[in-house]
């Protein structure tokens, strides 16, 4: 348990019957008239939904401990992603739902941050940008600008993104894992 006076960004609270919410931002407000209160912006750990919530100052809130560890993606086992803790070499099977959109950018050997609460995997977080190889893309035709200068390209993970016309099959490109945007070619 903690008090709303102790809130910090990134702290995880257990509210509304056990739902986990991460504190995105908070502000202590002391109006000239009436009691002080704390205005917060909370993000659901599971769904990513953001809500505004106001607490009376000094209210007790239940905190949750989230264990975040960097783990290496090893392989797929049916519907599960198998990650290995590089310090203990323990293997962890993670359900496809917990991996979410990160699955579009995961290849064997990639390191990801795996967040757990009481033994349950909440989510898998990749670095903001990853480097992946282009498996297939059609050659860009000079003068073809009807699509704004981009074309579809299939990454080595099987996921398709839009890339500039000059990118060719076999090149390694940087991709933003949050927006699926092309960020540039791999710098040598």
Range of strand content: over 45%
**Major sheet: arrangement of strands:** 1-6-2-3-4-5
Evaluate the radius of gyration.
22 Å
Write the element-wise H/E pattern from the N-terminal end onward. Answer: EEEEEEEEEHEEEEEEE
Q: What's the total number of strands?
A: 16
Query: Could you say which structural class the secondary elements and strand pairing correspond to?
Result: mainly beta
Helix proportion:
under 10%
- Indicate the low-confidence ranges by residue numbers: none
Organism: Streptomyces avidinii
InterPro entries: Elong-fact-P_C, NA-bd_OB-fold, Rib_uL2_dom2, Transl_elong_fac_P/YeiP, Transl_elong_KOW-like, Transl_elong_P/YeiP_cen, Transl_elong_P/YeiP_CS, Transl_elongation_fac_P
Subcellular location: Cytoplasm
Pfam family, one: EFP_N
Could you characterize what this model shows?
The chain contains one helix and 16 strands. With 188 residues, the protein is mainly beta. A hairpin with a 3-residue loop joins strand 2 and strand 3. The N and C termini lie far apart (50 Å). The model has no long low-confidence stretch (mean pLDDT 85). Residues 68-122 form the Translation elongation factor P/YeiP central domain. Pathway: Protein biosynthesis; polypeptide chain elongation. It is found in: Cytoplasm. InterPro entries: Elong-fact-P_C, NA-bd_OB-fold, Rib_uL2_dom2, Transl_elong_fac_P/YeiP, Transl_elong_KOW-like, Transl_elong_P/YeiP_cen, Transl_elong_P/YeiP_CS, Transl_elongation_fac_P. Belongs to the elongation factor P family.
